[in-house]
Structures are given as C-alpha cells and as structure tokens.
C-alpha cells in the first residue's frame, strides 16, 4: 500500500468540493505544531507532501491525498491557534462537522497528541465532535523522542483517562516519533488493516 506514491488531490473548502466517495478514507487531526505534516510525510515516505497542507491559504482546507488507488489520506486543518479570526474558525468548524458526520467512506480519524503535553481542552473538543459524528478515532502520540520514558508514561496514562470518556475512541494508542521512525510501521499496518 505505502509502496505507491502519495499524491495531492485537492484542498476542499465546502462539502460540494469533496472528491467522489469511491474509496476508503482516513483522516488526521491535531493541534497546530503537533507534528501532523511530519507524520504524514513519514507515513507516505515523501518529503514534500504534507507541506502542501501547510502552505498559506491551504491551512483552512481539508486536504485530500491519494495513497494508491484504494485510499484517501485526509489532512484536516490544524486547530488551536487562537489568532485566527472568529468567522474563519466558525466556517471551518462547520465544514469539519459536516465532513465528519456526512462522509460515508471515512473509516477512522487519527488524532495526534504531543507526547509532552497530553490531551488539552482544545483536543477534547475534537474528540467530542468525533463522538457525536460517530467516527471511530485512534490517538497517536507524536514526538516521543522528546520525552523521557517516565514522563511519556505519565502522559499516556492521562490520555487513557481522557479516552475513557469518549465512546468513539479506539483504545489502542500508537506511540510515534517521525524523527526516529518509531511507530510508523505500526501505523501503516493499522491503516492497511482498514481497507
Ligand atoms: P504540524 O503543524 O502539526 O503540521 O507540525 P509539523 O509537522 O510542521 O511539526 C512541527 C515541528 O515539530 C517541526 O519543527 C517538526 O520538525 C517537529 N517535529 C515533528 N515531528 C517530530 C518528531 O517526531 N520528533 C521531533 N523531535 N520533532 C518533531
């Protein structure tokens, strides 16, 4: 699956712009700076791919990438930057809600959580949104190379406690470091299992 090149398809700003729902889809969500682009690049084995999502003007879009003929990888806009104007925030929240609750082919959301910080209130908002949209989500700890094992375990326990409140949570948490390559093969295998 991941031997194929991933390609950017389009950035979507309204439901009418979604590509045809003709294949399995998974999406990635996370606070700005959590390491989402780096992780998507590590997964797909490309350097420049998710940079497309971080380009000015693309950061409020839902970005679609193909991974072979049978899978869409969907990069949701990073959240948690307080400096975006309210109408902009409200517009993408509306789109996000519509997308998550309306997309038949969406199999799972991967919610990225920084291994140093754990689940923050702004993350919990997305988790609740996923609950109400009935989208199964799985948490991925990022940047595990930046924490000592003891601190990581403390954060892991905090994430587990937070997940227990969310009916749509898939219990297994994936530990990753895009820097070191840790957890990337695991995540690929999980994704391959969803097709
Ligand atoms: P995004 O805003 O979520 O797309 O975050 P980026 O992928 O742009 O990453 C934000 C910053 O974290 C960048 O400086 C990355 O180099 C760094 N980063 C991302 N993943 C890792 C990781 O696994 N380990 C370390 N040490 N740094 C990382």
Please supply descriptive tags for the structure shown above:
195 residues, alpha/beta, 7-stranded mixed sheet, globular, binds guanosine-5'-diphosphate
Walk me through this protein's architecture.
With 195 residues, this protein is α/β, with parallel strands linked by helices. Helices cover 32% and strands 24% of the residues. Helix 4 links the parallel strand 6 and strand 7. Helix 2 packs parallel to helix 3. The longest helix is centred in the middle third of the chain and has 17 residues. The chain is globular, with a radius of gyration of 16 Å. The model has no long low-confidence stretch (mean pLDDT 92). Bound molecules: guanosine-5'-diphosphate. Guanosine-5'-diphosphate (GDP) binds next to helix 1. It comes from Sedimentitalea todarodis. This is Probable GTP-binding protein EngB. Necessary for normal cell division and for the maintenance of normal septation. Belongs to the TRAFAC class TrmE-Era-EngA-EngB-Septin-like GTPase superfamily. EngB GTPase family. Its cofactor is Mg(2+).
């Amino acid at each position: 699956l991941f031997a194929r090149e991933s390609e950017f398809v389009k950035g979507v700003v309204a439901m009418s712009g979604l590509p045809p729902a003709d294949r399995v889809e998974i999406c990635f969500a996370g606070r700005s700076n959590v390491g989402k682009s780096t992780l998507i690049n590590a997964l797909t084995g490309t350097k420049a791919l998710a940079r497309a999502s971080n380009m000015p003007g693309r950061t409020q879009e839902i970005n679609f990438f193909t991974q072979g003929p049978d899978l869409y990888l969907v990069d949701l806009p990073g959240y948690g930057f307080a400096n975006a104007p309210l109408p902009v925030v409200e517009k993408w929240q509306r789109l996000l809600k519509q997308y998550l609750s309306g997309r038949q082919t969406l199999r799972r959301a991967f919610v990225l959580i920084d291994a140093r910080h754990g689940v923050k209130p702004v993350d919990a908002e997305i988790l609740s949104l996923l609950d109400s949209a009935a989208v199964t989500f799985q948490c991925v700890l990022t940047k595990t190379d930046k924490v000592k094992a003891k601190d990581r375990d403390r954060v892991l326990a905090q994430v587990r406690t937070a997940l227990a409140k969310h009916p749509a949570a898939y219990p297994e948490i994936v530990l990753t470091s895009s820097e070191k390559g840790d957890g990337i093969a695991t995540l690929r295998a999980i994704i391959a299992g969803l097709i």
